[in-house]
Q: What sequence folds into this?
């Protein structure tokens, strides 16, 4: 008897795969960082005009996108963000990052081994000269202090709110349930954004936090201007993506996106 599966058997197996969701489509991740330069990315440093980075905070060295402070004397609340040129709505964004070295003098205590991915962000050209953070949703990246627990993939909300477990959530930051990553180990952080419906934080392949319906905070002066410009609309369904500089050196060796609109 032949051991070759019958056509009926093959059809039955394929139908089973469809029913159980096991048929996988190829994921076409696109690199947003070419490993050579900052093509596609533009800085906005507090107290400097959009496009200026007089102290070379964001740079590419050894194939890595680095955030460095060797040209600073003190931090002086000069928070910075590196914006990608395109806004997105439905996507998965992924980076591999690690914290290195020591925090710059004058950096706030909470910014120790602290960076972030800003999503659903405002257009950087609408930021005023002394603006510290873009109105956005922040996927906060934290490194451990070598002893205690310090989760990463947390949520912060500059000028925004979200719905958590079905209820409006107004606290500025909330912790994820991630592990703590001490030292200079590489960590993979991913954020899945489904327009206005869902945002999910994923660390090393594990979902650590999710929430729904991000909106602009009408009580925030910067967000209020955006609401007025949008004709009263408060729902966030798309926006810019940016990476932070908050006084502690950090490196990114992979920055990529899976555009779900495609």
A:
């Amino acid at each position: 008897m032949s051991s070759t599966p019958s056509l009926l058997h093959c059809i039955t197996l394929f139908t089973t795969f469809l029913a159980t969701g096991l048929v996988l489509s190829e994921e076409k991740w696109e690199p947003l960082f070419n490993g050579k330069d900052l093509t596609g990315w533009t800085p906005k440093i507090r107290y400097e005009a959009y496009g200026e980075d007089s102290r070379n905070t964001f740079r590419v060295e050894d194939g890595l996108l680095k955030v460095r402070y060797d040209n600073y004397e003190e931090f002086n609340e000069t928070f910075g963000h590196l914006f990608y040129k395109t806004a997105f709505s439905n996507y998965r964004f992924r980076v591999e990052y690690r914290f290195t070295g020591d925090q710059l003098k004058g950096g706030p205590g909470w910014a120790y081994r602290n960076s972030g991915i800003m999503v659903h962000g405002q257009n950087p050209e609408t930021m005023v000269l002394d603006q510290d953070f873009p109105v956005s949703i922040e996927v906060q990246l934290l490194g451990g202090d070598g002893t205690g627990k310090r989760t990463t993939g947390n949520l912060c909300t500059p000028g925004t709110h979200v719905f958590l477990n079905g209820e409006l959530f107004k606290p500025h930051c909330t912790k994820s349930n991630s592990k703590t990553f001490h030292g200079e180990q590489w960590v993979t952080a991913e954020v899945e954004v489904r327009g206005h419906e869902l945002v999910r934080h994923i660390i090393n392949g594990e979902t650590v936090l999710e929430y729904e319906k991000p909106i602009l905070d009408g009580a925030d002066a910067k967000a209020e201007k955006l609401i007025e410009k949008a004709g009263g609309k408060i729902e966030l369904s798309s926006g810019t993506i940016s990476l932070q500089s908050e006084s502690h050196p950090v490196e990114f060796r992979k920055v990529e996106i899976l555009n779900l609109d495609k």
